[in-house]
Amino acid sequence: MEEFISKDYETLKQKSKLSSWALLKAKCEERNLTAPTYKTFCIQTRQRPAFEQTMKRKGSRAAYAHAPLYLELRQTTTRHGDRPFEIGHIDHTELDIELVCSVTGRNLGRPWMTILVDAFSRRGLALYLTFDPPSYRACMMILRECVRRHGRLPQIIVIDGGAEFQSTYFETLLARYECTKKTRPPAKARFGSVCERLFGTTNTQFVHNLRGNTQISRNVRQVTKSVKSQGIGCLDTRRPPRPGIRIPL
To answer: 0.85 cut: is pTM over it?
Structure first.
């Protein structure tokens, strides 16, 4: 049974448990051996290490979800900064909300949020909102906002593999102020948990409570014209914008 689990079931063919058990039963009958029941075979496969089993059947990306977690900090845990402003994480996300211009009533679409988070204190150092997709301009503006607020930049900037972080402008700025750029490993989302957790909290605790949020869009078949988020944006068209606030058209 162990041989069939390791060599027949735990392969890239991703055969079902029933198929592997049927071959095992036929092999046992051929050798005049008592075959284990299907229930016993299923129990034995579930007792195998989930990480190694998923790695053999689906590859490293699928097995990443079963990798061990850091549930508590110990002396042997990888350190994530020794002081504030040592390591900063930059990332982008598209907010779950549709905005409408308060003057023309035109649908402006979903805004993008760029944040810079301090890895040691978990404090948000800077925030930048725009309707443009992620580009080198958002990366430059988030660093400018950090300097405006705190008068300094983090010593190390952690980014993902996005093309906007590979621009000459962004790398020149970091080199000018002697900041080290580090890229997170691909397909390992937990390395960006400092930003990703904040993105999730922002959407669930704040954005999902505003008018025009796109929660209902997840169930496309249930969306009707009366509840469509594009028609009920969070900006009230009956009131003019406040002085000093300009909405790009």
So the answer is: no
